[in-house]
Amino acid sequence: MSYAELRGWLVDFVAATLEVAPSEVDTNATWDDLGIDSASILVLLSNLDDDTGLAVRPVQVLDHPTVEALAAHLGAAAA
Predict the structure, then answer these.
(1) What angle do helix axes 3-18 and 67-78 make, rounded to 10 degrees?
(2) Ramachandran angles phi, psi of 66, nearest 5°
(3) 47 phi and psi, to 5 degrees?
(4) What class has domain 3-78?
(5) What are the C-alpha distances in Å from 57 to residues 33, 39, 61, 64, 70?
(6) What would the pLDDT profile of 31-77 be if each residue is shown by its tens digit?
(7) Which of 1, 38, 45, 48 is deepest in the core (most CB within 10 A)?
(8) φ, ψ dihedrals at 35, nearest 5°
(9) Where exactly are the structural domains of the chain?
């Protein structure tokens, strides 16, 4: 998946989790600032694997603590 596809997927996940419109998701805010807790991160990882086939480890999410950073990291790894 490309950076743009991953970014869109992550924005949609956060929006659905927080029950807000995707346009309300600040892609530069940290997971914590967005209200994404550790349980939500585990769901994110499971759904990401199911939807995209990407097996992402929790440490990758912690090392890339925003939608933008994680999308860029995963997009570069997939390229």
Answers:
(1) 140
(2) -135, 165
(3) -65, -40
(4) mainly alpha
(5) 21, 14, 7, 11, 12
(6) 999 999 999 999 999 999 999 999 999 999 999 999 999 999 998 87
(7) 48
(8) 95, 20
(9) 3-78
